[in-house]
Design a protein that fits this description.
Number of strands: 5
Distance between the termini: 33 Å
Strand content: 5-15%
Helix content: 25-40%
Shape: globular
Structural class: alpha/beta
Order of helices and strands: EEEHEEHHHHH
CATH topology of the largest domain: Nucleotidyltransferase, domain 5
Strand order of the largest sheet: 3-2-1-4-5
Oligomer: single chain
CATH superfamily of the largest domain: Ribonuclease H-like superfamily/Ribonuclease H
Number of helices: 6
CATH class of the largest domain: Alpha Beta
Length: about 240
Amino acid sequence: MESRARGGHFEGDLINGLHGTGNLVTLAERMTRFTFFDYVGSKESEAVMEVVLKLLGPLPPDLLKTLTFDNGKEFARFRVLEALGLKVYFARPYHSWERGTNENRNGIIRKVLPKGTAFNDLTEEQRRRIDYLLNDRSMRCLNWRTPREAFARLVLRVLGAPFGGRLRPPSRTGAPCGAPRPPCAPPVALRPALRATCRASTRRKNGLSGEPGGATMPPIHTEAPAWAGYAAGVALASCCRDV
Protein backbone atom coordinates (compact mmCIF):
# COMPACT_ATOMS: atom_id res chain seq x y z
CA MET A 1 0.00 0.00 0.00
CA GLU A 2 2.79 2.41 0.87
CA SER A 3 4.43 1.96 -2.54
CA ARG A 4 1.12 2.55 -4.40
CA ALA A 5 1.82 -0.54 -6.46
CA ARG A 6 -1.71 -1.88 -5.95
CA GLY A 7 -5.04 -0.17 -6.39
CA GLY A 8 -8.03 -0.22 -4.10
CA HIS A 9 -6.59 1.73 -1.18
CA PHE A 10 -8.48 4.94 -0.39
CA GLU A 11 -8.09 7.95 1.88
CA GLY A 12 -11.10 9.89 3.12
CA ASP A 13 -11.94 13.22 4.69
CA LEU A 14 -14.71 15.77 5.19
CA ILE A 15 -14.32 19.35 3.92
CA ASN A 16 -16.39 21.83 5.89
CA GLY A 17 -18.40 24.60 4.31
CA LEU A 18 -19.67 27.74 6.00
CA HIS A 19 -21.32 26.81 9.30
CA GLY A 20 -24.69 25.21 8.70
CA THR A 21 -24.32 24.90 4.91
CA GLY A 22 -23.07 21.32 4.69
CA ASN A 23 -19.83 19.58 3.78
CA LEU A 24 -18.10 17.62 1.05
CA VAL A 25 -17.04 14.00 1.47
CA THR A 26 -13.81 13.33 -0.43
CA LEU A 27 -12.32 9.89 -1.15
CA ALA A 28 -8.98 9.64 -2.97
CA GLU A 29 -7.66 6.41 -4.46
CA ARG A 30 -3.95 6.27 -3.63
CA MET A 31 -2.58 4.55 -6.73
CA THR A 32 -4.39 6.59 -9.39
CA ARG A 33 -5.14 9.79 -7.38
CA PHE A 34 -8.71 9.60 -8.65
CA THR A 35 -10.99 11.47 -6.24
CA PHE A 36 -14.67 10.93 -5.52
CA PHE A 37 -16.58 13.73 -3.87
CA ASP A 38 -20.18 14.44 -2.94
CA TYR A 39 -22.22 16.77 -0.78
CA VAL A 40 -23.52 15.84 2.67
CA GLY A 41 -25.86 18.11 4.59
CA SER A 42 -24.52 17.46 8.09
CA LYS A 43 -21.56 16.07 10.00
CA GLU A 44 -23.62 13.32 11.60
CA SER A 45 -21.83 10.02 11.17
CA GLU A 46 -24.91 8.27 9.74
CA ALA A 47 -25.24 10.84 6.96
CA VAL A 48 -21.52 10.78 6.17
CA MET A 49 -21.39 6.99 5.99
CA GLU A 50 -24.42 7.00 3.70
CA VAL A 51 -22.54 9.18 1.22
CA VAL A 52 -19.40 7.03 1.46
CA LEU A 53 -21.47 3.94 0.72
CA LYS A 54 -23.08 5.72 -2.21
CA LEU A 55 -19.68 6.60 -3.70
CA LEU A 56 -17.86 3.32 -3.14
CA GLY A 57 -20.70 0.80 -3.12
CA PRO A 58 -20.99 0.42 -6.92
CA LEU A 59 -17.28 -0.32 -7.37
CA PRO A 60 -16.10 -3.89 -8.01
CA PRO A 61 -15.49 -5.67 -4.68
CA ASP A 62 -11.90 -6.49 -5.64
CA LEU A 63 -11.22 -2.75 -5.83
CA LEU A 64 -12.20 -2.12 -2.21
CA LYS A 65 -9.31 -3.02 0.07
CA THR A 66 -8.64 -0.31 2.66
CA LEU A 67 -9.90 3.14 3.60
CA THR A 68 -7.98 5.53 5.87
CA PHE A 69 -10.02 8.32 7.45
CA ASP A 70 -9.19 11.50 9.25
CA ASN A 71 -9.51 11.12 13.01
CA GLY A 72 -12.92 12.78 13.33
CA LYS A 73 -16.16 11.75 15.03
CA GLU A 74 -18.04 12.05 11.73
CA PHE A 75 -16.51 8.68 10.80
CA ALA A 76 -17.49 6.97 14.05
CA ARG A 77 -19.91 4.55 12.37
CA PHE A 78 -17.23 3.21 10.07
CA ARG A 79 -18.22 -0.40 10.72
CA VAL A 80 -21.06 -0.15 8.21
CA LEU A 81 -18.34 -0.10 5.54
CA GLU A 82 -17.21 -3.58 6.49
CA ALA A 83 -20.15 -4.86 4.45
CA LEU A 84 -18.18 -3.75 1.38
CA GLY A 85 -15.14 -5.74 2.47
CA LEU A 86 -13.19 -2.60 3.37
CA LYS A 87 -10.67 -2.52 6.17
CA VAL A 88 -10.96 0.89 7.81
CA TYR A 89 -8.05 2.71 9.44
CA PHE A 90 -7.64 6.11 11.06
CA ALA A 91 -4.74 8.53 10.83
CA ARG A 92 -3.27 9.61 14.14
CA PRO A 93 -4.38 13.02 15.48
CA TYR A 94 -2.47 15.91 13.87
CA HIS A 95 -0.77 13.51 11.44
CA SER A 96 -2.41 14.68 8.23
CA TRP A 97 0.59 13.48 6.20
CA GLU A 98 -0.59 9.93 6.86
CA ARG A 99 -3.33 10.78 4.34
CA GLY A 100 -1.18 12.91 2.10
CA THR A 101 -2.94 12.12 -1.16
CA ASN A 102 -6.33 13.09 0.23
CA GLU A 103 -4.99 16.31 1.77
CA ASN A 104 -3.43 17.28 -1.56
CA ARG A 105 -6.71 16.75 -3.41
CA ASN A 106 -8.59 18.70 -0.74
CA GLY A 107 -6.26 21.61 -1.39
CA ILE A 108 -7.29 21.58 -5.04
CA ILE A 109 -10.96 21.71 -4.05
CA ARG A 110 -10.22 24.72 -1.85
CA LYS A 111 -9.05 26.60 -4.93
CA VAL A 112 -12.66 26.54 -6.11
CA LEU A 113 -14.32 26.61 -2.68
CA PRO A 114 -12.19 28.68 -0.27
CA LYS A 115 -12.80 28.46 3.46
CA GLY A 116 -15.96 30.31 4.40
CA THR A 117 -17.82 29.27 1.23
CA ALA A 118 -21.42 28.11 1.58
CA PHE A 119 -21.80 24.58 0.25
CA ASN A 120 -25.60 24.37 0.18
CA ASP A 121 -25.90 26.21 -3.11
CA LEU A 122 -23.10 24.68 -5.17
CA THR A 123 -23.71 25.13 -8.88
CA GLU A 124 -23.24 22.47 -11.53
CA GLU A 125 -20.46 24.61 -13.00
CA GLN A 126 -18.58 24.55 -9.68
CA ARG A 127 -18.97 20.79 -9.44
CA ARG A 128 -17.72 20.34 -12.98
CA ARG A 129 -14.75 22.61 -12.34
CA ILE A 130 -13.80 20.66 -9.22
CA ASP A 131 -14.17 17.35 -11.06
CA TYR A 132 -11.97 18.63 -13.88
CA LEU A 133 -9.23 19.97 -11.61
CA LEU A 134 -9.15 16.75 -9.60
CA ASN A 135 -9.43 14.09 -12.26
CA ASP A 136 -8.83 15.44 -15.77
CA ARG A 137 -5.36 16.95 -15.64
CA SER A 138 -2.33 14.90 -16.65
CA MET A 139 0.09 14.01 -13.86
CA ARG A 140 3.76 13.16 -14.20
CA CYS A 141 3.52 10.51 -11.46
CA LEU A 142 0.89 8.74 -13.59
CA ASN A 143 3.07 8.72 -16.71
CA TRP A 144 1.18 11.82 -17.93
CA ARG A 145 -2.20 10.12 -17.73
CA THR A 146 -5.04 11.81 -15.93
CA PRO A 147 -6.36 10.30 -12.68
CA ARG A 148 -9.59 9.44 -14.52
CA GLU A 149 -7.68 7.55 -17.18
CA ALA A 150 -5.55 5.73 -14.63
CA PHE A 151 -8.56 4.81 -12.49
CA ALA A 152 -10.54 3.50 -15.44
CA ARG A 153 -7.63 1.32 -16.52
CA LEU A 154 -7.51 -0.01 -12.98
CA VAL A 155 -11.24 -0.78 -13.05
CA LEU A 156 -10.92 -2.60 -16.37
CA ARG A 157 -8.01 -4.64 -15.06
CA VAL A 158 -9.95 -5.64 -11.95
CA LEU A 159 -12.89 -6.65 -14.14
CA GLY A 160 -10.59 -8.80 -16.25
CA ALA A 161 -10.95 -6.71 -19.41
CA PRO A 162 -7.55 -6.22 -21.09
CA PHE A 163 -6.90 -2.76 -22.44
CA GLY A 164 -5.90 -2.45 -26.04
CA GLY A 165 -2.55 -0.97 -26.95
CA ARG A 166 0.42 -1.30 -29.21
CA LEU A 167 3.12 -1.40 -26.54
CA ARG A 168 3.27 -2.44 -22.94
CA PRO A 169 4.52 0.10 -20.42
CA PRO A 170 7.69 -0.67 -18.45
CA SER A 171 6.96 -3.77 -16.40
CA ARG A 172 7.95 -4.45 -12.80
CA THR A 173 7.48 -8.17 -13.30
CA GLY A 174 10.28 -8.63 -15.79
CA ALA A 175 8.08 -8.85 -18.88
CA PRO A 176 9.84 -7.26 -21.87
CA CYS A 177 8.86 -3.68 -22.55
CA GLY A 178 7.20 -3.18 -25.92
CA ALA A 179 5.62 -6.63 -26.04
CA PRO A 180 2.39 -6.54 -28.08
CA ARG A 181 -0.91 -6.64 -26.25
CA PRO A 182 -3.95 -8.72 -27.16
CA PRO A 183 -6.87 -6.92 -28.83
CA CYS A 184 -9.16 -5.09 -26.46
CA ALA A 185 -12.38 -6.90 -25.70
CA PRO A 186 -14.22 -4.89 -23.03
CA PRO A 187 -17.37 -6.24 -21.41
CA VAL A 188 -20.58 -5.27 -23.17
CA ALA A 189 -21.67 -3.21 -20.15
CA LEU A 190 -18.57 -1.05 -20.50
CA ARG A 191 -18.80 -0.35 -24.21
CA PRO A 192 -21.05 2.75 -24.05
CA ALA A 193 -18.77 4.19 -21.38
CA LEU A 194 -15.69 3.47 -23.47
CA ARG A 195 -17.24 5.09 -26.54
CA ALA A 196 -17.79 8.23 -24.49
CA THR A 197 -14.23 7.84 -23.24
CA CYS A 198 -12.73 7.76 -26.68
CA ARG A 199 -14.72 10.78 -27.79
CA ALA A 200 -13.71 12.76 -24.70
CA SER A 201 -10.08 11.72 -25.08
CA THR A 202 -9.96 12.67 -28.74
CA ARG A 203 -11.53 16.05 -28.05
CA ARG A 204 -9.05 16.74 -25.27
CA LYS A 205 -6.05 15.78 -27.39
CA ASN A 206 -7.33 18.00 -30.21
CA GLY A 207 -7.68 20.93 -27.85
CA LEU A 208 -11.48 20.94 -27.93
CA SER A 209 -11.96 20.44 -24.23
CA GLY A 210 -10.21 21.55 -21.12
CA GLU A 211 -10.58 23.66 -18.06
CA PRO A 212 -13.88 25.52 -17.66
CA GLY A 213 -14.06 28.27 -20.20
CA GLY A 214 -13.16 25.87 -23.00
CA ALA A 215 -15.61 24.11 -25.30
CA THR A 216 -16.83 21.16 -23.23
CA MET A 217 -16.06 19.01 -20.23
CA PRO A 218 -17.11 15.44 -19.48
CA PRO A 219 -20.24 15.12 -17.33
CA ILE A 220 -19.88 14.28 -13.66
CA HIS A 221 -22.78 11.85 -13.44
CA THR A 222 -24.09 9.27 -15.88
CA GLU A 223 -27.01 6.89 -15.86
CA ALA A 224 -24.58 3.99 -16.13
CA PRO A 225 -23.28 2.27 -12.99
CA ALA A 226 -21.01 4.61 -11.04
CA TRP A 227 -17.78 2.78 -11.84
CA ALA A 228 -18.66 2.63 -15.54
CA GLY A 229 -19.36 6.33 -15.56
CA TYR A 230 -15.99 7.11 -14.04
CA ALA A 231 -14.35 4.69 -16.46
CA ALA A 232 -15.76 6.77 -19.28
CA GLY A 233 -12.99 9.28 -18.70
CA VAL A 234 -10.16 6.91 -19.59
CA ALA A 235 -8.22 7.48 -22.81
CA LEU A 236 -8.06 4.06 -24.42
CA ALA A 237 -7.60 5.32 -27.96
CA SER A 238 -6.40 1.97 -29.25
CA CYS A 239 -9.49 0.36 -27.74
CA CYS A 240 -11.85 2.47 -29.82
CA ARG A 241 -11.35 0.21 -32.81
CA ASP A 242 -12.85 -2.70 -30.89
CA VAL A 243 -15.70 -0.92 -29.08
